[in-house]
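User: Hey, my collaborator sent me this sequence without any context and asked if I could get a structure. I don't really work with proteins. Can you help?
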Amino acid sequence: MTSDPQPWGRWATLALGLLALLSSQAAALLGLTWWYGVGIARLPDFSGDGVAVSLVIFTSIPVQLVLLYLLAQARGGSAADYLGLKLPRRSELGFGVAVTVALIVVGNLVSWLFGRAIVTPFQLDIYSTAATAGWLPWLWLAVVVVTPLGEETLFRGFLFRGWLRAPRDVWPVILITALLWAFVHVQYDWYVIAQVFVFGVMLGWLRWATGSTILTMVLHAMINCEGMLETVISLHS
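Assistant: No problem. I've predicted the 3D structure and written it out in C-alpha cell form, which is a compact way to encode the shape of the chain:
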C-alpha cells in the first residue's frame, strides 16, 4: 500500500462526495419518520426542533463518515492520509485558535454594526426545544462534536484531497469547498451563509497550510461551541 494514494478524479470526487452526503441524509430522514411515526411530507414541521436536529446529525454523520472512509480507502492507500487525518503541531493549533477567535470577534462586531442579531432564530429554536425535551446534552454533543467531524471530513477532507492537484489549484479549491460548505447551511439567511463562507475560507487555508483536517475539526468545533454559548447568553439575558 502506498502512503500517498492517488485521489479520485475531480468529477468522480464531486459525484462520490454528493453520494455520501445524500445517502447520509436519506438515512436520517428514514430515521426521523421512524422516530416520530410520520410521513416524509411532515418532516419540515420538525426543522426547528432540537431533538429532530440532533437525531439527524447522529444518524447522518456516521453513515457519511463510513462511506467517505471506504471511498478514500478504495484508492489503495491510507484512508487517514487521504482525508488529512493527522495531528497538527502545537504551533499550528495555537495559530489556528488565534485566527478563529479573531474572526469570531470581527464577525460579531460587523453584525453589531449592521444591526444584525448575533444569534439566529434557528439557534434559539433548536436550543429551546431541546431544553424543553431534556435533550440539551445531546444537542451540544451533536453540534459541537459530531457535526464538525462529518462536515470537515467531507469538505476539507474528501473534496479537498480530490480537487487539489497542483499549486495553482489551492485558492480555487479553498473557495469552492468554502462555497459548497456555506450552501449546505440552508437553515440560515444569506447574511449568515456569507459568514459561514468566510469561516470556510479560513478553514480551507489552514487545511492547505498544515495538511491537517483534524485541526479544522477542532476549530470548527470552537466556532460551533461559541455559537451555542451565545445562544445560552441570548436566552438568559
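In plain terms: The mean pLDDT is 95. You can pass these C-alpha cells on to your collaborator as they are.
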